[in-house]
TrEMBL record:
It comes from the Bacteria. This is histidine kinase. Gene3D superfamilies: 1.20.5.1930, 3.30.450.40, Histidine kinase-like ATPase, C-terminal domain. The keyword Transferase applies. PROSITE patterns: HIS_KIN.
Length: 372
């Protein structure tokens, strides 16, 4: 019985269908007439019925808020009597659904019709155990939902920052050029001057459109069931096709596994680095290298044989380095920009698998993104 319940609760979230199937299991084992799982805590005037197999006559005879207060009780297992619409007294047993100090609600079962005596000791112990398993399942479901919410807020913050650092700045620059063109026309400047500003506008629009396409490709990025290596191969092939650069992939991650969120951050850093190679490096060759050592330290290296950069401040101003550094910080790692072995630029990310998604780091970084 317990094995069946544990398997049912662990194989799927505690939805209405799962919980009603669980109540049917209880009915079959204990011989009770029906049951309900209600959310609420002692002191609440009204509970929320999450799942139920109770008879229609009992459902329609419940009087709010009195009967809800009786079911929730004082946070302890207890029995109670409820009168149905025909004047018959039905005996119910309420068991708190509690995980540690937090009570989510109650598991209520009704004795078989005509029975007036209480449940046996083994039946009460079984109900307590089942209620505890339900509470644990609800707790885990809430933790998963909270983790997804934090990840969603974090990714939205990163998207907002990427829009600000790329497209928003380009549009601001274009707005300035429009003002210049208006003044040139108002002053009656010669045709060559106006055409010069128009040419700047055209190039700026082309650049903004290119940035928009790259951002859309970035936002649509997903790691399929094929895994990180397949996504890496697709990314390298994409950037190889859009340029004449010979880009090689050396993936030596082996059996090292990182979380799906970490994979997304790694992929975004690689994409940003390759975007800089194709747009600014004037390179003919580039390499994407990934490795995970026995201690669980991951190294990601993107390097080219291009013209290189003057210093990291140039990267900070123009090449999306702030976003890459934020993603590296989420991974608990470090991002370094330097010279490659072939004279171009190298982007090196290092992080420990054990540090990824440590409790507190994701939330702290997210708050900084939201309020920074």
């Amino acid at each position: 019985m317990l094995y069946s319940i544990t398997k049912r609760l662990s194989s799927a979230p505690p939805t209405v269908e799962v919980l009603e199937a669980l109540i049917h299991d209880i009915e079959n084992i204990l011989g009770v007439a029906g049951g309900s799982i209600c959310l609420g805590k002692p002191g609440d005037e009204k509970a929320y019925r999450l799942a139920s197999t109770q008879s229609h006559e009992l459902e329609t005879s419940i009087r709010y808020p009195r009967d809800c207060e009786a079911c929730l009780g004082r946070g302890e297992p207890h029995e109670m009597d409820i009168e149905d619409g025909a004047g018959r007294v039905l005996k119910l047993f309420s068991t708190p659904i509690r995980d540690k100090d937090r009570q989510y609600g109650v598991l209520v079962v009704q004795t078989a019709r005509g029975e007036t005596q209480g449940l046996d000791e083994w039946q009460l112990r079984l109900l307590n155990t089942i209620a505890s398993h339900i509470a644990i399942a609800i707790t885990m479901s809430e933790q998963v939902s909270q983790s997804r919410l934090v990840a969603l807020l974090e990714e939205r913050s990163v998207i907002a920052r990427e829009l600000h650092d790329s497209l928003a700045q380009s549009l601001s620059y274009l707005k300035i050029q429009v003002s210049r063109l208006e003044k040139s026309i108002t002053r009656g400047d010669d045709r060559e001057k106006s055409l010069e500003i128009s040419d700047v506008l055209r190039k700026g629009l082309n650049g903004a459109y290119r940035q928009l396409r790259e951002l859309l490709a970035t936002f649509r990025l997903r790691i399929s069931e094929a895994g990180l290596n397949a996504a890496l191969q697709e990314t390298v092939a994409e950037f190889r096709e859009r340029s004449s650069i010979d880009i090689q992939l050396l993936n030596q991650m082996g059996n090292c596994k990182i979380s799906p969120n970490a994979e997304i951050h790694v992929m975004q850093i690689i994409r940003e680095a390759l975007s800089n190679v194709t747009r600014h490096a004037d390179a003919t060759r580039a390499t994407v290298f990934l490795e995970c050592d026995l201690a669980g330290m991951v190294t990601v290296l993107v390097e080219d044989n291009g013209v290189g950069i003057d210093d990291e401040r140039d990267m900070m101003d123009h090449y999306g380095l702030p976003i890459m550094k934020e993603r590296a910080a989420w991974l608990g790692g470090e991002l370094r920009i330097g010279d490659s072995r072939e004279g171009g630029t190298s982007v090196r990310l290092t992080f420990a698998v054990a540090d990824v998604e440590k409790p507190g780091r994701t939330i702290e970084l997210d708050r900084g993104m939201l309020h920074g």
